[in-house]
Amino acid sequence: MNNSHEQIHIHNSHLISTLTARLRHADAIIAEISETGDFQGYSTIDALTGLHSRSWLEQVIERQVQRCAMDGRPICAVIVDIDYFKTFNERYGHTHGDHVLYSVAHTISDNLRPAEIIARCGGDEFAVLLPTVEIEMARRIAERLHAGVMGAVPVMPDGSTIPHPTISIGVAALQPGQTGKQLLAEAGRALSRAKNSGGNCISE
User: Fold this and answer.
1) What DSSP letter does each residue of 88-132 carry, written as one string?
2) Which listed CATH number (3.40.50.150, 3.40.830.10, 3.30.70.270, 3.40.630.30) goes with 41-203?
3) Containing H/E element for 162?
4) How many CB atoms lie within 10 A of CB 47?
5) What share of the chain has pLDDT > 70, as a percent?
6) Which of 203, 52, 84, 51 is CA-nearest to residue 142?
7) What number is the average pLDDT over the span 4-27?
8) What residues does each domain of the chain span?
9) Mean pLDDT of 116-141
């Protein structure tokens, strides 16, 4: 086996291990919530990216927030949005746009630990939930996600590559008395500040 094949084998083994761990974590959350009878929406998967949907996240985040609040532990949310994605679609077409969405989704996922929860919120927006993570670490994770996405090169079915649009990221930490929905809204406001600053940046 040459070095190229060895590298591919190592990469595939790492990817399989990461995906397996993430699935085990998601299954554990689903099993826990199903015991309470609150299971509606948990099987919802985004067809394009394979990630969980916003409705799934909105149910998971409330339980995670309650748990962290009871234990006195932090929790943060990160929202990622592709800059000027509508313009990108108009220029390159929706097929290219779909490949970029898939690339962004899986680049983000590849740069997260299994316990960190990711979902597609619809359109060109993704949310990441970071249990037991302080805001300073959440910012570093957001920087890692930004660097990872900007370093990715989406490959089209014909083998060609295309320019990658930039991304903006909003980061927020749970405040006392907040719900999961409010935490996501706060991250959304941080994202808006990043977009209003011209995009391609991170805001808290």
Assistant:
1) HHHHH-HHHHHHHHHHHHHHHHHTS-TTSEEEEEETTEEEEEEET
2) 3.30.70.270
3) none
4) 7
5) 79
6) 203
7) 47
8) 41-203
9) 95
- Give tens-digit pLDDT for 56-83: 998 899 999 999 999 999 999 999 999 9
How far, in Å, CA of 182 to CA of 163, rounded? 35
- Residues 1, 9: contact at Cβ < 8 Å? yes
Average confidence (pLDDT) over 125-134: 96
What count of other Cβ atoms lies within 10 Å of the Cβ of residue 139? 19
Cα–Cα dist 33/40, whole Å:
10
Long-range CB pairs of 14-18, under 8 A, 24+ apart, other chains included:
15/110, 18/109, 18/110, 18/114
